[in-house]
Design brief:
The protein is 73% helix and 0% strand. The longest helix is centred in the first third of the chain and has 28 residues.
Length: 201
């Protein structure tokens, strides 16, 4: 069971969620009308900015011995990676703005940035869940797409799937004893509120 929990935690790593979110936005909304090569290009840039760059930074921090756990499970080693991730979110939000993505899509990244900053600050005292902030933000994006009628008819099933993913990731974090129930719930609320409120702007 723990191996499955580790797999779920890996597949839904906070570094991958922005890419999943942008992919969903480009393939399950009216944006599906954009030429497919442009959609894949935007998705690739988001992946580079929000996954590969933070991963490279973590690798450098590991080499410098500023971080000893690549999974960032040690609370006192999270500050610099969280700061770098926040800057990557900011860069990605600017990129989406300059390629004329809809404002709600850029604000998805701003919401992620805000959730990351909240996690960074709270982490000083309490190990709030970054995994849950990420999937909570993904759920908020899908709720925003549904409530603002940007989605396609089948999006209700996508939303149900994302909500199930939130439950799976939360259960996995508890099974792996990475967080308490309170930290999981707080992380989810952090990500959901930050993205939902920012994407309303």
């Amino acid at each position: 069971m723990k191996r499955l929990a580790q797999f779920i935690s890996f597949v839904f790593s906070p570094l991958l969620i922005p890419t999943y979110g942008v992919w969903l936005a480009l393939w399950t909304t009216v944006l599906v009308l954009i030429p497919v090569n442009l959609r894949w290009g935007v998705t690739a840039v988001v992946f580079i900015l929000t996954c590969l760059l933070p991963l490279a930074a973590i690798f450098v921090l590991l080499k410098l011995k500023l971080v000893t756990d690549p999974g960032l499970n040690k609370q006192n080693e999270r500050f610099i990676p969280y700061l770098i991730t926040s800057l990557c979110y900011a860069g990605c939000a600017l990129y989406l703005y300059f390629v004329h993505a809809p404002l709600w899509m850029s604000m998805f990244m701003v919401g992620g940035l805000l959730a990351s900053i909240v996690s960074l600050v709270v982490n000083h005292w309490w190990k709030i869940s970054a995994h849950m902030a990420a999937v909570g933000g993904l759920a908020a994006l899908m709720f925003r797409i549904m409530t603002d009628h940007y989605g396609l008819p089948f999006d209700i099933w996508v939303l149900i799937g994302v909500v199930m993913i939130v439950g799976l990731v939360g259960t996995s974090r508890l099974l792996l004893e990475r967080h308490t129930l309170g930290q999981v719930a707080a992380g989810t609320l952090n990500g959901f509120l930050c993205v939902y409120l920012m994407s309303a702007i």
